[in-house]
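User: Quick one: structure for sequence A, then sequence B.

Assistant: Sequence A:
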Amino acid sequence: MTARERIVVGMSGGVDSAVSALLLKRAGYEVVGLFMKNWEDDDDDEYCSTRQDLIDVVSVADVIGIDLEVVNFAAEYKDRVFSEFLREYAAGRTPNPDVLCNAEIKFKAFLDHALAMGAQRIATGHYAGVRERDGRYELLRGADPDKDQSYFLHRLTQAQLARVVFPLAQLRKKEVRAIAREAGLPVAEKKDSTGICFIGERPFREFLNRYLPREPGEMRTPEGKVVGQHIGLAFYTIGQRSGLGIGGTKGGKGEPWYVAAKDMARNELIVVQGHDHPLLKRDRLTAADLAWVAGTAPDTSLVYGGKTRYRQRDAECRIARLDDDECEIRFTEPQWAVTPGQSVVLYRNEVCLGGGVIQ
């Protein structure tokens, strides 16, 4: 009798990772669940769900009939993800910690740990796919267009993809919930967590306040007119409408105000009126810190679909310039609120090619 392949599943306490573990068990693999604790600064406050998530994972593992291990990656997380997150905010950018967390924790620290446990591969509950072609691995969109998470996984390498299974690749969310209900999993109706893993549901500004100093300054229009005061450039993001405190709300005069730019040198927040103001639209961007899934850069002669934020539809674009560490992307149609610190990710049909950090 041949030994069954061991796959370690990253389990978060949600329905997606629970069903991933269930499907692999049903497929005959030796499945071990791994619960990662990535944050412990405020475990006991109302917004931290870690304790409840662990209880849910234990219940799920019991129903499926798999072993479970708990591992603490809080030190690695703070060092590799959170410190970078704060650095980016302090520099006036808006980073995407989910992208960093996948590259540094879920597919690096977790993968290393799983291999040390004797696993051949790891699995997660991401809505994405992986396929081997001619000895190379491709990262694919998930079949559910509303849930596809390939955007967050675009920094994965060939070595990482070679070791990853995405059991939900071909499933839609409603099918995942139906499988969970039918199997009697206790998280079948648990609502999806939103927001950043270490912030949970807490108010974002209040959280940042603990770690970054407030440096108030003026809010002004592109023409130089002062229209209000900001509490610190780190606390705002391009395209932001709420929380500006300068009218444009219900009962306010004229169109709503939006953040259009940050003048770091003068500590000024540039705001404009109207969703379609020209300063909120850009037809080109520069990206750095590039990561290409194939290990080689894409062909600059082709047309691609680009996303400058997760929920966005693909926008037609080309690579106008490409160096080892930087590229310029040009869009056929101007894009709204392109935000430094976020990722631009390129696609060719269903294949995610990689991307970089918007400068």
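Sequence B:
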Amino acid sequence: MQNRDFDVIIIGGGITGTALTYVLSKYTDVESICILEKYGSLAPLNSNATSNSQTLHCGDIETNYTLAKASQVKHTANMLVNYKKQVEKNDFLYKYPKMILAVGDDECERLEKRYAEFNEAFPYMELWDAEKIAEIEPKVALKNGKPRPEKIMASGCTDEYCAVNFGNLSRSFIDSARKNNKNIQVSLSSEVTHIVKIEEGYECQTAQGSFRAKFVVVSAGAHSLLLANQLGHGLDLSILPMAGSFYFIPSTLNGKVYTMQNDKLPFAALHGDPDLTEANKTRLGPTALMMPKLERYTGGTYLDFWKSLKLDKKVVKVFWDLMKDSTIRNYIFRNFLFEVPWLNKKLFVKDAQKIIPDLTANDLTYAKGYGGIRPQVIDKTEMVLKLGEASIVPNKDPIIFNMTPSPGATTCLGNAYRDAKIICERLDIPFNREDFINELLDGKDLDI
């Protein structure tokens, strides 16, 4: 017989919800926790290893970060390394070489300036010339067996954790949580259709019946906004779902190779990675395509897209402002063509040759079933597309809605820390912050 009453219910069994479950179980006096997951397994969607870039974002190779943001991201990312030290089985965190690749005089000059600025915060990163790049990634440094004709440079390292299987990490969080607190229930195939305010907390209605809690955290990706709207929250927000696709090539890269970000583009620059789910394959991408659904490869959710988009003049203006910029407009059109059979590989290989000069279209295989959907938020009050983390935290109410973390799943423990503090404060439950900070944050608190 399932329990139906809990201190905390978490809607969504992905990396965000499972990380919060772990933090609450180990560092707080929350007595009972329930995860309600729509599908029949944990981490079925964007946290699945096939649905993301499998990258531990540390701020060292992401050239769209300021130094301040990169330093904070590094501190948060290191929490996963510290978590790994606490568990016996590590099937989620991996070390590979990694680098930022600069191609051409302009990019090399930008990279040298960035390296000088970021060196103190990331002392393990080195500046590599073409000869050193050839030692680490020969396929990157050579064209037709000879050094590339254009100038290349990289900032990289060879002995840092940089790849994550977030699906395995989600399952590890639950295993660890259950060792700390036996009163943890995971209810699969339990899609929450409605959340109703009750006298003490909220009632979550599912096909498996109703579940009640003093505090509810909704970590259901783009669907979080639809559930928030039911309760009158986030009515000024819309969701723009962006899908990322990938291509496979036979194993070519030894580690992660990121390219320099175009500052005018709000989407991730092309990169290559050894894939954690396909042995002896390198994955290239992502492309970026707006998709009229909230979930990829599950069928349906088209109607949910229109409900969350809330198309009106304000949303149209945001689209219009984006499309007025020729760089963004050309990028969007080109990425649309990346989804067209036959034409896609011929176009994509031209971009991918920046990383691997000898690559041909025949080397590419579309990674069918790979890539997820990241919900980007449109603020209809400010009429802007907001990139990065998106959460709704109503004043005083015992509920939180998480739509998307930034930068991605890397921040799962940082977001869990933030949510756990709010939960404990509003429920008047002790939180052992000192142990949390010492064990996961190396003794230095996060500024959140």
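The chain has 13 helices and 22 strands. The chain has two domains: 1-54+165-236+387-448, 240-297+309-380.

User: Thanks, that's what I needed.
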